[in-house]
Amino acid sequence: MRWGLKGGVVFFLTVLILIPLGMVNGLIAERERYRREAVASVARSHAGAQAVIGPVLVVPYTETVEVEEADARGEPRRVLRERSGQWTYFPEVLVLEGRLTPGTRKRGLHEVRVYELQGQLSARFDAAIPADADPLRPRRIGQPWLGYGFADVRGLTGAPRLQVNGMAATLEQGLGSREGGGIHARLAAPRAGERLALDARLAFALGGTESLAVVPLARANTVRLQSAWPHPSFGGSFLPRTRRVGADGFRAEWEVSSLATTAQAQYRAGVTAVTPVDGERAFAPQGAPAALDALGVSLVDPVDVYAQADRASKYGLLFIVLTFTGFFLFELIRRQPIHPIQYGLVGLALAIFFLLLLGLSEHIAFGLAYLAAAAACIGLLGFYLAHVLHSRARGLAFAAMLGALYAALYGLLVSEDNALVLGSGLLFAILAAVMIVTRKVDWYRLGQAREAL
To answer: What are the pLDDT digits (tens) for 403-421?
Structure first.
């Protein structure tokens, strides 16, 4: 077989090997979808990603206003009508302090990260109730309420305790007149022109899945969170002002001013969705036009086996091209033919590595899964190539080359931040090695000799 024709056959085989590689990539995406379904299943039975909104002070009122209406003859006339409304007040100062206790829930093969937040939410209000515009038609001011919003109220465990100005207040379900999940407490009705100075403290335990968001609605917001989980991912619209992450967990503190966020204006506009911390929106009624600014943290898995396997599979074509290139150079230089079927079997073995890696990593640690899959494939190929190349030494040499490639790939996977520079450096080194080894090869003479066979 002429060397040009042989090169075409090898190229065609390389393209064919992309089919099983693509099937492996599709399987990785499918298994990752199964994991998302497991997370959703845990969220349905436990509690979903959580968000804390509030507190917000709402004061309802009814006033008498003069409006112009048409009478029976169509003539305009001015009449008195009652109109209802409400004033919304946000805290001057809001402080949330809490500890996240991590845990896991299993759904089939998948472990889903959950947590319980033991928190205390303190808020100070200084609300000025408007005076009556017309003393002859005073407003009727109803019972105000303090509303606390939660993404999933099923996560509230035990009985939350609310104190307003040092006195215990009774909590009720819902957010009063606003859509969304939460709790609220009714307060005594104020008088027109009165100032409401409130100091509210809510102690609560809140369970959730994977992420927690907090909406900074006050003029000055401080959030302090700590946990024994050593792999936090901080997200949302604001990053912590200070943080400490170590093997014993993390501590983080946010300080957000109302000047740095439009959360108050968004809330007044009726927005109840929350900017995602990680993944799906935590608090999103149907038809929500936008998302509230939020800060938060996710308890992420340090090794996402599906993300790692997907990244590894993207290097599959490189493995096959390098191996086939080595075979082709060996044929040209040593003049020892290798059958296309043997190329194909070696390429399939390289593709199956990624399938083995995916299957094993669902049951054991990713590093061990990678080692086991690589050892199995290298051992098989070393044994096979020793017979194909009629030399145990040559088979071991190719196995050693593959071992170096697998080791380099693992280095790329565990060094995510440096993957680009390491990958480009590896490709440059491989190309340089091929050019150095073949620098004195007379390709025209090799081609003529190959065609003469």
So the answer is: 888 888 777 777 766 666 7
Residue 199 CB-density burial (10 A; 0-12 exposed, 13-18 middle, 19+ buried): middle
Question: What pTM was estimated for this model as a whole?
Answer: 0.72
**Which pLDDT score is estimated for 13?**
75
The model's pLDDT over 325-381, given as tens digits with 9 standing for 90+, comes to 777 767 666 666 777 788 788 888 888 888 888 888 878 888 888 889 889 988 888
Q: What 8-state DSSP symbol labels residue 73? A: T
Of 130, 251, 292, the C-alpha closest to 196 is 130
**Through-space distance between the first and last CA atoms of the chain, rounded to whole angstroms:** 8
> Last residue of a domain, which of 299, 329, 352?
299
Which residues, in sequence order, are bridge partners of residue 244? 251
Residues 123 and 30 in one domain: no
Residue 251 and residue 122 share a domain: yes
The counts of H helices and E strands in the chain are 9, 19
Among the candidates 299, 330, 362, a domain finishes at: 299
Paired tokens of 113: 């990260």
Could you tell me the residue range of the domain that residue 312 belongs to? 3-36+305-452
Per the domain annotation, does 102 fall within a domain? yes
263 and 134 share a domain?
yes
User: Which residues of the chain fall below pLDDT 70?
Assistant: 1-7, 10, 42-43, 108-110, 176-180, 275-290, 302-303, 329, 331-336, 416-420, 441-453
Instruction: Give the tokens for residue 147.
Output: 């509303």
Q: What is the DSSP letter of 58?
A: E
* Per-residue pLDDT, 280: 44
Nearest residue to 147 via CA among 37, 223, 60: 60
Please choose, from the candidates 246, 219, 168, 449, the residue with its C-alpha nearest in 3D space to the C-alpha of residue 335: 449
Q: Tell me the Ramachandran region of residue 165: left when phi exceeds 0, alpha when psi lies from -120 to 50, beta otherwise.
A: left
Report the 3 state secondary structure along 240-295: CCEEEEECCEEEEEEEEEHHHCCHHHHHHCCCCEECCCCCCCCCCCCCCCCEECCE
Judgement on whether residues 94 and 177 belong to the same structural domain of the protein:
yes
